[in-house]
Amino acid sequence: MTRNTVVIGSGAFGTALAAVFAHEGEDAVTLLGRDAGLIAILQKTRRHQAALPGITLPQALAFTIDPSVLETADIVVLAVPAQAQRAAALYYGPYLNPDAVIVSAAKGIDRASGRLITDVLSEALPNHPAGALSGPGFAVDLAAGKPIAMVLAFANGERAKETATILSGRTFRLYASGDPVGVQIGGALKNVLAIACGIVEGADLGESARAALISRGLAEMSRLAVAMGGEPETVRGLSGLGDLVLTGTSRQSRNFRYGVALAEGNFESVNAALVEGVYSASVASELAASHGVEMPISSAVARVLEGKLGIPQALEELMSRPITTE
């Protein structure tokens, strides 16, 4: 049985996901974008030089700007930034196959409402189950066919397993989860903590400081996930620890590079509009306050980003906190 998968969003990650889904050649895969010029180039050259330089996209991958392709889609992957997920869902919703399953590939929290993306999508598309895809995977590695493992979460664990099986392939393995809360908290907060790791790098605070930040940041993730109804084990998996180790140690990560630029006083060199952690930091801090959860690292990052706290002062504040047990 041939299934139809449509990936919405022709940026680096959306294009890479569409490419890895299409590599199997078993199901129909289409990349749906809104930039007619870019889509025409992709159709002609099978290259997205700006986002994925040097990579040839598979012949099995189709490209279109026509949303009517959604009318026969079994799985629709929303690979647009977190803050654009609601608008995309409302725009494309009228074209959806009534039985389509929705997968969000964004790693963030909706800033306008302070809600998780799957909750936003469930409100915008009430007749479609919404899941979250997250975990460690740079777009260029995905598109190049390098081995990647990520996690796909739906509230219905069986749906998660079925959808993960469809989307997985020879180089792309999806683990199924029934904890969309934990998966999304891990995906969103790792961006905030990756900015902190970048600050450590840019300020030359040392590898030991980064290791401590990753481990204590993971504890913050776990506390918030549990407070919001998730499982602590989830953030110790691919979406959380796995993704944080990747993005907190590599300059391929926009969030990490932004943190480095902040510490070096060169933050204008990175486009903040493309850095999900900038949006998630303040929302995470507000969620922590509303749930009575202590998140000193995330809170410090939020205040640094808002210009309310300098990096030396943030470091002093974190290091002078009362001694507690781990």
Automatic annotation (TrEMBL):
Glycerol-3-phosphate dehydrogenase NAD-dependent C-terminal domain: residues covered: 179-315
Organism this protein belongs to: Martelella mediterranea DSM 17316
Name by which UniProt lists this protein: Glycerol-3-phosphate dehydrogenase [NAD(P)+]
Origin: domain of life: Bacteria
Function comment: Catalyzes the reduction of the glycolytic intermediate dihydroxyacetone phosphate (DHAP) to sn-glycerol 3-phosphate (G3P), the key precursor for phospholipid synthesis.
Pathway stated in the Swiss-Prot or TrEMBL entry: Membrane lipid metabolism; glycerophospholipid metabolism
HAMAP family: NAD_Glyc3P_dehydrog
EC number: 1.1.1.94
Family affiliation: Belongs to the NAD-dependent glycerol-3-phosphate dehydrogenase family.
GO CC annotation: cytosol
Pfam families hit by this protein: NAD_Gly3P_dh_C, NAD_Gly3P_dh_N
Gene Ontology BP annotations: carbohydrate metabolic process; glycerol-3-phosphate biosynthetic process; glycerol-3-phosphate catabolic process; glycerophospholipid metabolic process; phospholipid biosynthetic process
Subcellular locations according to the entry: Cytoplasm
Residue sites binding NAD(+) per the record: 9-14, 139, 254
The Glycerol-3-phosphate dehydrogenase NAD-dependent N-terminal domain, residue ranges: 6-158
UniProt-listed InterPro entries: 6-PGluconate_DH-like_C_sf (IPR008927), 6PGD_dom2 (IPR013328), G3P_DH_NAD-dep (IPR006168), G3P_DH_NAD-dep_C (IPR006109), G3P_DH_NAD-dep_N (IPR011128), NAD(P)-bd_dom_sf (IPR036291)
Keywords annotated in UniProt: Cytoplasm, Lipid biosynthesis, Lipid metabolism, NAD, NADP, Nucleotide-binding, Oxidoreductase, Phospholipid biosynthesis, Phospholipid metabolism
Residues at which substrate binds: 107, 254-255
